[in-house]
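assembly run, all chains below
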Amino acid sequence: MTMSNTGGRRRPPTIHDVAREAGVSRGTVSRVLNGGHYVSPAAQEAVNAAIRKTGYVVNRHARSLITGRSDSIGFLLTEPQERFFEDPNFNVLLRGCTQALASHDVPLLLMLAGTEDERRRITRYITAGHVDGVLLVSSHSGDPVAEELREAGVPLVACGKPMGLGAKVSYVAADDRDGAKDMVRHLLSQGRRRIGVVTGPLDTPGGVERLAGYKEVLSEAGIEIDEKLVVPGDYSRASGEAGAERLLAQAADIDAVFVASDLMAQGVLTALQRAGRRVPEDVAVGGFDDSPAATAVSPALTTIRQPWDRISNEMVRVLLAQIGGEDPAAVILPTELVKRDST
Amino acid sequence: MTMSNTGGRRRPPTIHDVAREAGVSRGTVSRVLNGGHYVSPAAQEAVNAAIRKTGYVVNRHARSLITGRSDSIGFLLTEPQERFFEDPNFNVLLRGCTQALASHDVPLLLMLAGTEDERRRITRYITAGHVDGVLLVSSHSGDPVAEELREAGVPLVACGKPMGLGAKVSYVAADDRDGAKDMVRHLLSQGRRRIGVVTGPLDTPGGVERLAGYKEVLSEAGIEIDEKLVVPGDYSRASGEAGAERLLAQAADIDAVFVASDLMAQGVLTALQRAGRRVPEDVAVGGFDDSPAATAVSPALTTIRQPWDRISNEMVRVLLAQIGGEDPAAVILPTELVKRDST
DNA sequence: CCGGCGTCTGTGAGCGTTCACAGTAGAGAA
DNA sequence: TTCTCTACTGTGAACGCTCACAGACGCCGG
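ok done. output:
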């Protein structure tokens, strides 16, 4: 039973205790804690030993008070709750970002802005400086929160290119157009010629690009775009189901559908099977995202994989860089065709 | 252009600025901020006006430094990531807790412990006092994290009764047994007699209780329990599908299945339909949870609603009470039968 | 021997808040 | 009047850390 142990038993050890234990000053301990520059190897060693011995953990509040940073970041989702409940992509992204941040020892604050009230509260919270930066996920266009945060100068990285925010905000996105092209080429290579499309929301760059990829490949193949084959969706399962029904009604002779999200593709599958069309024999279905939903259905979806791990890692990297003073950046990541049973 | 405005333009206003603006002392401002006891109405008024005028927001780090509280809580999910990706119940709970906490102005830190490494890191983070308490979601038994946290004296509230932690940890749960009984009675009332069951994990109280409810009602109705009608599951969709197949193989004459989770019920539906059984004509299917999954399938699931909103609210209430010094508590909430198309 | 430089270390100040305490004023009781 | 009690207010002193600064030491070139 040592003095140092008995003495400060009840309350956690401070940097002061570590300094005393290691026989150095607070300043030296602090320097070791923050990168260890200008510290002799001997002191370095002694401090680390003292930290282990005392079980010291830095008091983040004291640190933040003086640095002005909170060393935490917000994950902001501005989607209606139904979307959050039905689309597992959010979970994948959430997990990826949590993991990426954990390796930097930065906690993630979850902010769900489903209602106007929450939106306001969250905006206030963020602009008050309670987080150093924000990872933004919002599939819909013209997000007022994003605009406010940008104006307030809060470091911000969006998932997917945001609409109408100019080049001022960073984003990380998959190569939507390229992915769409791959899928449509794949459908073509299977001999499909009457290829319908259920688009994403066309007020978002992602939705527009995926449709553009579809049209581009068909044109290159010398197939004229039939507007009856193009029906709008909003990424929700219900809109996929409705889209497929509309497609079936407008163009009963389709032999394939390119669906701009896996969740919508689930709906498409449901509608197709209800209409007695076999997948993939009668109609091939290609999705987009490679969300967990893709393998939860039967037949398992052929889809375009968005590299979620890389997307989350890049979002975190770009955000931390921006917090460190760097300029906003846009990162486009390649996609990959995943062949399964629906084509 | 007033002096007070021009002076402190760059950096946010402090409690001191507010005090000067209002013509009172820091202490008085602080008292207003924390409930306003022992403050004259006039001072109260002046301080509030000054806060509005200066746009003051409390510096949480300074506050935490002295109070020793972090005024934030952790939401800890100790599930493999596949479970997190496929089960929308987590999202519902996450949203409920976020919302409940927001009304207390307490941020939620998301902690996903999928791997052993993360488990360790998170435990260290929590026991270091970086959060005041933890909302725990972990469907599997014998969770080492929970045990460690309990031993460290961290305020903890679990969702669902945790296995083997004794009465020492708070939890909020729906009345599993009662819900199961309602469902089986409902099945009985529809004239079903050969009722199979796909159970939840039987190393958790929830799984055990739901099965117990099933057996209890059948016994009361004078129907002998046929063990061929009881197959195990683990709440995952895949286990539901496998369970239904096994049921079909062991007891082809079933006319109903009580499934211990909606997600498994999705799998059951898939297997049943693949086997050519019509739902609900040939076989009725009853789920449990009323998860978003229940209405995403066809036919829409008859299920037992867990009152998620109340569950999250209670979890937060109990946790905050416990942080405030109260004793651990157990809350059991009533369920409700939701009749849809699968029975 | 001096001066300068680069490496390393200790020290005081201060970040913005809360808390304990001391103190004031006014009302009511003795 | 004087004393006590209650309602309210102001004032240091922390909380645990980082940062700027000053100083010590060894080494080099003049």
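The longest strand of chain A covers residues 73-77.

Residues 97 and 312 of chain A are 5 Å apart (CA to CA).

not gonna interpret more than that til we talk
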